[in-house]
């Protein structure tokens, strides 16, 4: 029976702001695959009043993508640090009503 390498959790942070909004970041190291050639699986979400308003993810069978409001677009993944910076920048833009 072949040995299957499990995903390795790299980071998991969940913060509830005083306003009640939730920011959650989950990142795993995985075996590179066609939909995750960089070797990472991730889900970053900013939730306002129970609805995701900003998100970055690459779920099973999906490539890297960015969600803001109802729009979804491809995301050019560079590295985890840049991903995190882009996510936080989008949250700040959302809070400033720039998105």
Core attributes:
99 residues; alpha+beta; 6-stranded antiparallel beta sheet; 16% helix; globular; TumE-like
Provide an overview of this structure:
By secondary structure, this protein is of the alpha+beta class. 16% of the residues lie in helices and 41% in strands. It has a 6-stranded antiparallel β-sheet with strand order 1-2-3-4-5-6, with helices on one face. Strand 3 and strand 4 (51-57) form a beta hairpin. The chain is globular, with a radius of gyration of 14 Å. The mean pLDDT is 92.
Low-confidence stretches: none
Major β-sheet annotation:
6 strands, antiparallel
Structural class: alpha+beta
First and last CA, distance = 50 Å
The gross shape turns out to be globular
Tell me the radius of gyration. Answer: 14 Å
Domain module count? 1
Strand elements, count: 6
Number of helices: 1
Spatial strand order of the main sheet: 1-2-3-4-5-6
Helix fraction by DSSP (H/I, runs of at least 4): 10-25%
- The pLDDT mean sits at 92
SSE topology string: EEEEEEH
In terms of DSSP E residues, the strand content is: 35-45%
Pfam families: TumE (PF20126)
InterPro entries: TumE-like
């Amino acid at each position: 029976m072949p040995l299957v390498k499990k995903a390795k959790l790299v980071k998991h942070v969940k913060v509830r702001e005083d306003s009640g909004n939730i920011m959650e970041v989950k990142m795993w190291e995985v075996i590179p695959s066609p939909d995750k050639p960089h070797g990472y699986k991730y889900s970053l979400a900013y939730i306002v009043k129970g609805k995701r308003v900003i998100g970055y993810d690459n779920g099973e069978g999906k490539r890297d993508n960015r969600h803001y409001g109802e729009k979804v677009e491809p995301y050019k993944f560079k590295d985890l640090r840049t991903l995190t910076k882009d996510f936080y920048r989008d949250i700040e833009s959302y809070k400033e009503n720039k998105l």
